Amino acid sequence: MSLRDLMAEAIAKAIDDAGCTALDIDTVIVGNMLGERLSGQAHLGALAASLLPHRPPALRAEAACASGSVAVHTACALLESGRAETVLVIGAEKMTDATNEVVAAGLMGAADADLDSPSGLTFPGIFGLITARYMHEWGLTREQLNLVSAKHHANAVLNPFAQFRTAIPAEKIGQSPLVADPLRLLDCSPVSDGAAAIILSTKTKSDVRLAASSLATDAVSITERPTITSFPASREAAERAYADAGLRPSDISVVELHDCFSIAALISLEDMGFASPGEGISLYSQEPDIAVNGTGGLKACGHPVAATGVKQIGDVCKQLRTGKKRYGLAQNFGGACATCCVHILEHA
Ligand code: COA
To answer: What is the mean pLDDT of residues 273-290?
Structure first.
């Protein structure tokens, strides 16, 4: 499927699920990172709008792996200002037609081309460094880290939209091929094709509303950070989202977080207040009060980069409805968390 095909399928499903028709959509926003580089396709806003009968005004948002959630954040600004009433947000990425080398080089566009890329680092390399440092600071063991991907894969078994739907025992994670020491194949989110679409409206009634949408940024290069075992943008985005929604972490029942690499899940849980620093693993070694990546997360669902942030919001919405829970949170970041968007959803 091409980018166009992927978007068309996601749009049709979103419209089927929404309480409005295609003609109610007055604005289209597409999140995409690598269209030009991997598909020779730019101008994705207009391309997506051309899939609707009335071709409404459209634009594109790009913020590396956070492109999808930044598209949602942009939609919120248009809705809050009254410039739009019903916005279709699509995240789409097509990655599997290119070689690994081309994809890895494209993804390195999310890092600093002056400070990071010349060293030969790739994203598994960057998160390999982060994992090694975290293990050094907090004493996390390989056996403990295995629990993260094993849990996300187990969660994906029942998710028909997941790329990998097989349970993988924890010990197999630590036996998978080494990618960027100490990260192994099964610590990494895969290369994926995918699209997700949601419709946000101030006009149409829904049982789920967005209670907060916050965006924070940090230095793009990890060489410009005082620490690499905590991501301030994630902390700031979460704190602002909690304040805007009038909530605390303990009010949240469902979390979809950005586990691009297994260590990112632990750091994100700590930065967003679900665990103390160094103790994120406790949500995997004991039965937690909250559902973390109940769909399988990026690890098992796949990580078609710009689709992820939109998909997470759809997935939190579904889990709140099926689990009859009140509050859920989606956290999506770009690069080594240089851009982070946190959304909180409330189910009536
Ligand atoms: N989880 C589970 N299984 C995976 C997997 C994953 N992450 N990645 C690959 N596999 C499976 C494949 O399906 C394949 O199985 P098969 O042999 O039965 O078909 C096998 O493992 C080998 O896959 P392959 O695609 O050859 O692996 P690869 O070595 O080409 O790529 C990575 C593996 C980890 C290097 C690549 O997925 C990657 O670069 N991931 C990170 C992407 C990234 O940086 N994203 C941005 C994050 S910020």
So the answer is: 96
Evaluate whether residue 61 is within a structural domain: yes
With a 6 Å cutoff on the Cβ, whether 188 touches ligand 1 is yes
Q: What's the one-letter identity of residue 32?
A: N
CA dihedral (13, 16, 17, 22) positive or negative: positive
Would residue 256 count as lying in a domain? no
∠ CA 44-45-46, rounded to 5°: 90
189 in contact with ligand 1, CB cutoff 6 A: yes
Output the domain CATH number for residue 84.
3.40.47.10
**Does the reported pTM lie above 0.90?**
yes
65, 260, 301, 317: the active-site residue: 65
Q: Whose CA is nearest to atom 22 of ligand 1?
A: 185
Identify which of 130, 107, 231 has the alpha carbon closest to the alpha carbon of residue 183: 130
In a domain, 90, yes or no: yes
| Domain around 81 | 3-97+193-198
For residue range 131-170, what is the model confidence (pLDDT) as tens digits?
A: 999 999 999 999 999 999 999 999 999 999 999 999 999 9
Q: Assess whether 65 carries a catalytic annotation.
A: yes
From the list 73, 303, 343, 347, the catalytic residue is 303
Closest CA to 163 of 29, 311, 34, 35: 311
Q: Is 73 a catalytic residue?
A: no
pLDDT tens for residues 311-344?
Answer: 999 999 999 999 999 999 999 999 999 999 999 9
Share of the chain above pLDDT 70, in %: 100
**Inside any domain, residue 307:** no
